[in-house]
Write a structure and sequence with these properties.
With 367 residues, the protein is mainly α. It has one domain. It contains 15 helices and no strands. The protein is globular and about 50 Å long.
Length: 367
């Protein structure tokens, strides 16, 4: 009890007057990392991934996917940026699949439908074994697609850019699946480092660094060519709005790449850690909006050849843990009447334990 009182006195002046408010603030703090809150975050993210798998399966069942167009427009461009250490595997996959594309595309489609229905069925029935089976299958299938079918999205060859879809949507699906399977000790959102919370910032860090260190992105044939490539997968009503940016990035390649890389790096810094910044969460919307429209053409889902909506939807799902922390840290506590303004600064900032976790101090435990 002495420890609790000392903590309270050091956190908020006039402990007897602010005990109720401080306790309420602590309850908000513990909500960010309680098992109930963690389960809620996981469930929300899982609903998103399950629906994305369902959409991907429907897109895979489009008529042109059963033709050589799937090989020419989807598999070959992806395999062309494979790193050398998996080049042989990618080429073998291409050789093996091409003569039987109709049969293999049914296999691809059914596998994705199975993943989606397993996850959705598990969520609806609250059947954890079914969810776990769906997640494990999604990780296994995702690895096959990412390595053999997508050539790791150019991550290991210097050709990958977050602007057009690296590190790959299926890679992000796998990340969400892994995070769901991790125990609650991995989900302590108030820790100095928390992988599910900070993963989005790390993806943006990768995006910014890749933009900076890849020489081609600084030339006139860099970003502009990427947009032209995406325009080929866009419907006619989008193409006219994409061409002005092609001209702009062609004429001012250095400025364009500075803006793009700086945006990614800024988001990495603003979202990383146990106190994600409001401006970072606000900046996500316009940056990912530009990326999804001009850089990814919505994944080509309106062209008849898109296999998924690309990386922006799963990136938004991965923002949920950071948003949860941001909301918890900004909950305002009602202060009882009679407390002066100077004493009423009860806590938009959450108390932290010596270990850095949210709501694990003595006051938060109610001692």
């Amino acid at each position: 009890m002495e420890i609790a009182e000392k903590y309270e006195m050091s956190s908020v002046p006039s402990a007897p007057s602010t005990l109720g408010a401080g306790s309420q603030a602590s309850r908000l703090a513990t909500g960010a990392t309680s098992p109930e809150t963690i389960a809620g975050i996981k469930r929300t993210m899982l609903w998103g991934i399950a629906l994305l798998w369902l959409l991907d399966a429907a897109l895979q069942a489009q008529p042109r996917m059963f033709t050589i167009d799937f090989i020419s427009n989807i598999m070959k461009p992806s395999i062309a940026i494979s790193p050398s250490f998996i080049g042989a595997l990618s080429n073998w996959t291409l050789t093996f699949v091409t003569p039987h594309i109709w049969l293999f595309n049914w296999l691809f489609t059914i596998t994705q439908f199975v993943i989606a229905f397993a996850l959705l069925g598990g969520l609806i029935k609250r059947n954890q074994p079914l969810i776990r089976a769906g997640l494990l299958l999604s990780i296994a299938w995702g690895m096959v697609v990412w390595v053999a079918g997508e050539g790791t999205s150019g991550v290991f060859t210097g050709n990958g850019t977050l602007f057009t879809g690296a590190p790959g949507s299926v890679f992000l699906y796998m990340a969400v699946a892994v995070f769901y399977l991790l125990g609650d000790n991995w989900w302590q959102l108030g820790n100095r480092f928390c992988l599910p919370r900070d993963f989005l910032a790390l993806v943006f860090l990768y995006g910014g660094v890749a933009q900076v260190v890849t020489p081609g992105f600084w030339g006139s044939q860099g970003i502009s060519i990427l947009i032209v490539g995406q325009a080929s997968m866009a419907p006619s009503w989008m193409i006219n709005t994409m061409m002005p940016l092609v001209t702009l990035t062609h004429q001012y390649p250095v400025i364009s790449n500075v803006v793009l890389s700086a945006s990614f790096l800024a988001l990495a810094g603003l979202l990383y850690g146990r106190n994600p910044k409001t401006v970072g969460l606000l900046l996500i919307i316009p940056v990912l909006g530009v990326v999804w429209y001009w850089g990814q053409a919505f994944g080509g889902i309106f062209s008849g050849m898109g296999t998924d909506p690309n990386t922006v939807p799963p990136l938004l799902l991965l923002a949920i843990p950071a948003v949860t922390v941001w909301r918890a840290r900004r909950q305002k506590v009602l202060v009882p009447p009679g407390i002066g303004a100077g004493r009423a600064a009860v806590a938009t900032a959450l108390p932290e334990s010596p270990s850095g976790t949210l709501g694990n101090g003595p006051l938060a435990r109610g001692r």
